[in-house]
Write a structure and sequence with these properties.
single chain; about 400 residues; alpha/beta; 8-stranded parallel beta barrel; two-stranded antiparallel ribbon; 12 helices; globular; disordered N terminus; binds phosphoenolpyruvate; binds manganese (II) ion
Length: about 400
């Protein structure tokens, strides 16, 4: 793997047990430790979903993105569900991603790396521990159930085994349907699950590989620098991402780069900025400038979804396509001005004909019609293609 001419890496990474004994945000309160131990053991001996060589191949593709020679398109459900793990749903999402990638490749004259938010996106960070009924909040099918009953909402460690099995089924379909080369990624949230799916790399490699996905990212709510999630990501050999919200300081961003890309490997680190359309033009430039001055080649990816969420009068969590487009435009403006590569996007979308976001034919009164997401609102096909058309213009300049 190609390295920058940076000073030698710092100390060897901490052992896993130490790294993940740091403060662990957003972890399920499993009712029974014996059950968790049994599940961890089963996952430790289970076949991984992906192999180290595939993760290395993705790092190489993301290195092209980092140096401005490719674009990365990441997308899929906010939260996958066990019941939604059907042929038609997976096919719809993959086909949409592929259509979008084709438009962007034509517009930019650059290869587009497809990264499906699929085959493992089964756990969600939440802003409150309890819901309006006083029940533990839904945290994703890997942890508990969506239905508002005490039994469904109780965290069940066996769900980690179901998540692994469902992911394996999805992964098999991804490979078969796309003929290889579509990569998968999800948020690395549940540490019991992710740690049990680490696998050693080739002899001599000091870092373990994730067996759960090609790409893992750390979310906005679990990115504290002294926390277990960053400690975990630091250990991985896979390419990793970190979501950066509008409160991120340039100094913090630099610290993520030092910690998560200590060896200066282009493509190793993706900074996923999700600033919101109102703030992106102010908040992003000093971050990009400081990171660029460090000399690391990171992937700059824009998530124009998570900074633009609000609750509609109908009570539905939603987003306006218009705001998504504005954040994307701001992201392109900033990177063009600073001479850095606006290398990709991270979108919540589905090929299903849902009514979760506003715009492109969906108004507030339409939201209840097909509001099916288990968590955040997704772009439907028409909305995603509208975003793609605008992205194509931005890429062409
Ligand atoms: C997500 O990607 O679904 C998510 C929770 O994002 P963020 O960590 O950026 O809030
Ligand atoms: Mn989301």
């Amino acid at each position: 793997m190609m390295h920058l001419g940076l000073p030698a890496a710092g100390p060897a990474p901490l052992p896993l047990a130490v790294a993940v004994s740091r403060p662990r945000a957003q972890q399920p309160e499993w009712p029974d430790q014996a059950g968790v131990r049994a599940v961890r053991e089963a996952l430790r001996t289970a076949p991984p979903l992906v192999l180290p060589a595939e993760a290395d191949r993705l790092t190489a593709r993301l290195a092209e993105v980092a140096r401005g020679a490719a674009f990365v398109l990441q997308g899929g459900d906010c939260a996958e569900t066990f019941t939604g793990n059907t042929e038609s749903h997976l096919r719809g999402n993959l086909d949409l991603l592929t259509r979008m990638a084709a438009v962007l490749a034509r517009a930019g004259g650059l290869p587009v790396v497809r990264l499906a938010r699929m085959a493992g996106q089964y756990a969600k960070p939440r802003s409150a521990a309890m819901d309006a009924h006083g029940l533990p909040v839904y945290r994703g099918d890997m942890i508990n159930g969506r239905a508002a009953t005490p039994a469904e909402r109780a965290p069940d460690p066996d769900r980690m085994l179901r998540a692994h099995a469902a992911s394996a089924v999805a992964m098999n379909f991804v490979r078969a349907w796309t003929g290889g080369e579509v990569f998968t990624g999800h948020e690395a949230l549940v540490l019991d699950y992710e740690c049990a799916l680490l696998r050693p790399g080739p002899p001599g490699d000091r870092r373990p590989y994730s067996g759960s996905a090609h790409f893992l990212w750390i979310g906005e709510r679990t990115r504290r620098l002294d926390g277990a999630h960053i400690g975990f990501a630091e250990l991985l050999a896979n390419p990793v991402g970190v979501k950066l919200g509008p409160t991120t300081t340039p100094e913090e961003a630099v610290e993520y780069v030092r910690r998560l890309d200590p060896d200066g490997v282009p493509g190793r680190l993706t900074l996923v900025t999700r600033m919101g359309h109102r703030r992106v033009r102010d908040v992003l430039p000093p971050i990009v400038e400081k990171v660029t001055a460090l000399g690391h080649q990171v992937v700059w990816q824009c998530d124009p979804m998570h900074g633009n969420t609000f609750v509609a009068p109908t009570g539905h969590k939603t987003r306006r396509v218009e705001h998504v487009l504005d954040e994307l435009a701001g992201y392109f403006e900033v990177h063009r001005r600073l001479g850095t590569h606006p290398g990709g996007v991270h979108l919540e979308l589905t090929g299903d004909d849902v009514t979760e976001c506003l715009g492109a034919g969906i108004g507030e009164t339409d939201l209840p019609n097909r509001y099916e997401t288990a968590c955040d609102p997704r772009l439907n096909t028409r909305q995603a293609m509208a975003v793609t058309a605008r992205l194509a213009e931005l890429i062409r300049r």
